[in-house]
Amino acid sequence: MTVEQNVLQQHSQKHQQTLLNQLREVTGTTDVQLLQQALQVSNGDLVEAVAFLTEKNAKVPQQDEATYYQTAQITNDRYISVGSQADTNVIDLTGDDKDDLQRAIALSLEESNRAFRETGITDEEQAISRVLEASIAENKASLKRTHTEVWSDSPNPHERKRMENCPVGLKNVGNTCWFSAVIQSLFNLLEFQRLVLHYSPPARMQDLPRNQKEHRNLPFMQELRHLFSLLVGSKRKYVDPSGAVEILKDAFKSSESQQQDVSEFTHKLLDWLEDAFQIKAEEDREGEKPKNPMVELFYGRFLAVGVLEGKKFENTEMFGQYPLQVNGFKDLHECLEAAMIEGEIESLHSAENSAKSGQEHWFTELPPVLTFELSRFEFNQALGRPEKIHNKLEFPSMLYMDRYMDRNREITRIKREEIRRLKEHLTVLQQRLERYLSYGSGPKRFPLADVLQYAMEFASSKPVCTSPVEDIDTTAPPGGTIAQLPPPASAGEQPDACVSAEGSGSGLQASQQQQQRVSIHKPFTQSRVPPDLPMHPAPRHITEEELRVLESCLHRWRSEVENDTRDLQASISRIHRTIELMYSDKSMMQVPYRLHAVLVHEGQANAGHYWAYIYDRHHQRWMKYNDIAVTKSSWEELVRDSFGGYRNASAYCLMYIDDKKPFLIQEEFDKETGQMLSGLDKLPPDLKVFVEADNKLFEREMEEWDALQARKLQQEKLALAAAAAAAAAASVAVQPMSTEPCSPDNTAPSAAPQHDPEYMEQQSPSGDSKHLQEDTERAISKAAAEHDEKSPEALLNTAMKVEYTRLLRLAQEDTPPERDYRLQHVIVFFIHNEAPKKIVERTLLMQFADRNLGFDERCKSIMKVARAKLELIKPDEVNMEEYEMWHQDYRIFRETSVFLLIGLELFMKKSFVEALMYLIYAYQYNKELLAKGPYRGHDEELIAHYRRECLLKLNEYAAALFETGEEAKVNTGLSIMNDLVVPCLPLLLVDEMEEKDMVAVEDMRNRWCSYLGQEMEPNLQEKLTDFLPKLLDCSTEIKSFHEPPKLPSYSTLELFERFGRVMTSLTMGRTPADGR
């Protein structure tokens, strides 16, 4: 066959397949032979074919045997329809008018055919176009979004720098998480990666007919090569895939948008790659039939063996991604078994010519990369919208495909028959066991062994001789405190004789009633039942012989029932174990497939987020690829997110690879040195140049950023120096004139402290300065009292020791959070965190060198000595950079305390909107402090608790506003979510070990996802659909954020007291230990 004939044949097959898909979509018929028959009868005319099928369906009931025959959906898995556009010519289909139905079908087919004839593009491709255009439009619109949007780039390029040997992420350019998940899964197939990177366009491109597909596929391949090369060698933490997405968008023309589906995109992506590689394969072939590497990698074949109306048939068909139904199955093997058998198959194995219809599928050739589509979306006819199936479905990390291979057909049939027989036996045993465990004929049923035990307990209870109502005094007032006692039995009476309610004992009973009081049983206040009240009902009349016989029978029956129950349970367990081990022999474990990637979808049918778990064979671990965030993961996390049934997240696509073909994930090695290739060494020359150029641009961006920050820092230093100089000049101007001459040497010490922390020295004798001044003067007075004749230097040394002793005692106290002495003095903070001795000494010396000390001669002389000592300290004695760093940490500690103080005060006032930013920054600053030492910050759990609670309160408030349905309130609620809550979610997700934060985020998402199943106005539905992707974005990348709120200035004493009051309020009220 010539190349032209081969191309024509492929085109004819695809055109026929397109017609079949259109017929299936319009008529709902899934019988391929029936569809083909309709096309043959109508000579390819779709209108006549539809008329043929609708007439046939009107004559044949839906449940006829013809409907049992459903051909392999796998053949058509590459041409799944994703829906049709709304037409302006609306036809009412709610009535019974068949002409309307025929007109609607004809109009739909005419529209589809006209579009296909004009553009050569199917409805499926146009649907994908709508999604891609929406993604590009959203990407462009994102440039105009506020800085609180979670997918904006950080302005600091160093935060976007790739860590060494860390995989590169993909930026979400607007609802393109599906693109990232699929591309990353394919990129990490190293054989596929090599094929793309080393793809070269045909040499004779100018001689080839440049049709529309070639115009689309070849540029797309070039963009994909560029994208893959950046994923290999970029210095960026994540790269922008807009180039490839732009090509996809430009290939189609449409204006509508919808949520993109991973499987549909994968179908089309592989189609385009197949076409691109086919051109290259045909150019490179030398006489033999060209091999397409995409087909070799992703496509397999199966044999369809069946019976249709008594006639046997066998067809070999090709498949790519294999679709599996999820609903009604518990694991992947059950899904596969159901997909491999369609209809009634008894007639397949018998020689009789039966009229039953059915078919089996047997794989004749499996692809190296085996992909399963898990169908988790179904259309709800009653509600008129798609819904997601959240059922749990388990899948193994190693899948053995032997039982589905054609070469094992006979042995598999034997095992299936054995399993069928065992399951029938199992059903009988389970029904019998159920009769034992749920015994009775009424609505309430109990285990039979328990029923017999209860009967035995009843029979063995002490007999009573009165009716259960006869011993109750109905004349006593409600809640009375006096109870009547029965008369004592006479000597002649038998213990079991009945006592009459009326008779001679009544007089004695009346007299005793006045003399004795008996405590009344109070069921809600007493913990035990009075001894005179029977514990259980009991038989009134039973003889010893009757009791003996009854107990003997009940004991024997209960023993028999328990033995029968144990035997049934043991038999059921053995059968389950036998079924589980049915395919465990070595002969059925020769086709192993290892799980390579799991594509996960979180959300509902019409909104959600995709990410991927991919196995890193080199490091033997799972990795989570969530747009720009690539993090280490585990099998346990994968199970939690992928099996379903636990929350709104579940696997949507499974990618397995042949475990006997290591080349799929094998690294390349240098032929000369034998060393493994990595980074830019893996790239061909043209891509190496491309990546190096991009890396240089990124390096230049970092250099420009560093230069900009250096200029800003220099400007800040100059501004601070100018402000300090102005403050010093103002301070000198207001000080009283000294009676001593001012020498040039005296000017230096006065200028020395100008750069020291503001909480160590204030310009006015109030606030912090006054409080610090009083402490200093108190230490000086105490030192002077001990040594009255000492020199100023000796007094200074003694006063410093006195003050340090006081501060050390405060630091060593075991105080609750409401008395945090670190807020009172910087040296307490330093002692807690083991600051160097020189840092502490200089800080203490600064306290005694304060110009605001009292003006008596003793204090003035000590201040001058302290300033002189400061001047004499050499640079090599105290590291000033370290000194500044310690004081900077204390400044941050005070700021953190103020953030926390204000945030908690606002939270307790229920001002959650205002409180949030204070709590957010309190947590972030505190976390940075705690990273340097456990005593540099506050209780992290406490701040995390109130940060989490504040977000939950805001989420509830916003949801309540949304539920009102009023336009203004709905907009306010969504604004709160978009501006406050959503940007904060990455802060809760960044540490996945914090389970409470993870649960809180899940609760918030579930609250909004629950609205998807409710009826609401179209404008609300539109706003919800637009908002949910932002809420469900699982990216942990923290981008640009709100500026921190401005903090008021508190004196040390005021901050200490207010902080103590807030902590006392929390201690008296609810604490984080209470949980959420």
UniProtKB/TrEMBL annotation:
Complex and partners: Homotetramer, inhibited form. Homodimer, active form. Interacts with ACTA1 (via its C-terminus); the interaction occurs for all isoforms but is strongest for isoform USP25m in muscle differentiating cells. Interacts (isoform USP25m only) with MYBPC1; the interaction prevents proteasomal degradation of MYBPC1. Interacts (isoform USP25m only) with FLNC (via filament repeats 17-18, 20-21 and 24). Interacts with GAPDH. Interacts with SUMO3; the interaction sumoylates efficiently USP25. Interacts with SUMO2; the interaction sumoylates efficiently USP25.
GO cellular component, one term: nucleus
Record GO biological process: protein deubiquitination; proteolysis
Function in brief: The muscle-specific isoform (USP25m) may have a role in the regulation of muscular differentiation and function.
Superkingdom of origin organism: Eukaryota
GO MF term (any one): cysteine-type deubiquitinase activity
EC code(s) of this entry: 3.4.19.12
SMART domains to which the protein is assigned, alphabetical: UIM
UniProt KW keywords: Coiled coil, Cytoplasm, Hydrolase, Isopeptide bond, Nucleus, Phosphoprotein, Protease, Repeat, Thiol protease, Ubl conjugation, Ubl conjugation pathway
Name recorded for this polypeptide: Ubiquitin carboxyl-terminal hydrolase 25
Matches recorded under InterPro entries: Papain-like_cys_pep_sf (IPR038765), Peptidase_C19 (IPR050164), Peptidase_C19_UCH (IPR001394), UBA-like_sf (IPR009060), UBA_8 (IPR054109), UIM_dom (IPR003903), USP (IPR028889), USP25/28_UIM (IPR054108)
Catalyses which reaction(s): Thiol-dependent hydrolysis of ester, thioester, amide, peptide and isopeptide bonds formed by the C-terminal Gly of ubiquitin (a 76-residue protein attached to proteins as an intracellular targeting signal)
Sequence similarity: Belongs to the peptidase C19 family.
